[in-house]
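Hi U.,

Before I forget, here's the chain from the pilot set. I'm dumping it here mostly so it's searchable later in email.
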Amino acid sequence: MARVRLYDTLTRSVRDFTPNDPGRVTMYTCGPTVYRPVHIGNLRTFIAADLFRRALELEGLEVRKVMNITDVGHMTDDSQEEGGEDKMQLASEDEGLSPVEIAEKYTAAFHRDAGSVNILPAAAYPKATEHIAEMVELTETLIRRGHAYEVDGMVYFDVDSFPTYGKLSHNTVDQLAAGHRSLTPGGGVDPKKRRHYDFTLWRAAGPRRLMKWPSPWGEGYPGWHVECSAMSLKLLGDHVDLHTGGADLVFPHHEDEIAQSEGATGHQVVGAWSHAYHLLSEGRKMAKSAGNFYVLADLVERGADPLAFRYLALQTRYREPTNFTLEALAAADRGLERYRKQMAEWFAGPVAVSPGGVPAGFSGGAAELDQRFREAVAEDLNTPRALSVVAELASAAIEPGQKYRLLTSWDRFLGLDLAREVTTRDQLPRGASEKIEARERARGDRDWASADRIRAELAALGVEVIDTPQGTRWLVSR
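Structure:
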């Protein structure tokens, strides 16, 4: 087993990843706000979280991953919470659907997109609206422990009560300008707060508010940040081995999570924080006005395999900026198809994989490549280096069956469905297996005319035959 090392945002260092319970990992990932389709920048972040999980599972660890669904409380301006509006309510008003219908529509769309890029399903997808009671309870605990205070139905976290605030983002209270997250809809500093940098745990519901719940402080709804603390504590307990998300969440979202969770429990909750860097689109931040804003459906409409986007994401390390272009996507699509054709050529029957996920019986050359691939993955998800090992496979002096088995094993991490085009005889179209056998007999008899005729008949059935020194392989058109 390789030693897995990850970059920890809290310590600003790459360090050994050690779960609290040997062999078992608890993992929390901030999920989508379901008021519109996720864009490809969101997907890049979710793919990074999937790679963390796959890297740990590749080394035999059992991972329990939880990803939340934000369906209330996420404001349009996270830096000035009281000056924004809830994204879910705005979408409801724009589309003429209820907030529940909006959430159902875009939660389903998220799961479709996640499945299309081979993100493994989480163990649980808690919805914020289904955990209001836990958020109220957490807020009450923070008030009781002296970390929060209530004013006119609003509950605020008292940042001065938590001396280590800023340890994740290095944003200290001295650096927070007056008015940060404090503006009222009229533009002034919220007079209800003790200090401008305190943040909201519970909001009083206004007259236009559609989504609201009873609480000890009157009807209202939770702040966005308190949601993840409440749900992670509920589903994973008071120790989470790994918390992931986009770099844009370091502050204020994850900084506030630390204050809430540690303020409530009295101890460090998250063992390691890992964040994926931003995705640029054609060298700039994605924006509809700039014409460089894409969702997955846009890429599919242009003829790309959704997994070409995943392959493109793998070409840059998760904590480095990635620049998306349509030209790069097209190149990734061609590269993916090339690997799948190679897999068909290398196909040598069923793949025997041990319980630990490592194919048994590799030759020295194959074992050396396998070790280098796994070391690249374990060293803070160095996917570019891992892909360079994959590229060496084509010219490696290894028999095709072992190449097939190696790449099948590695694809447990890559998640690219590289064996998609490989088809066994019992998966062939009706009559194709018999034609393949007839063609093999014709080739054995050196009856090239019959072999060519049968090749054409197979092509009409959507089956491309590939002659290799190890025998006939085939590729089925999908």
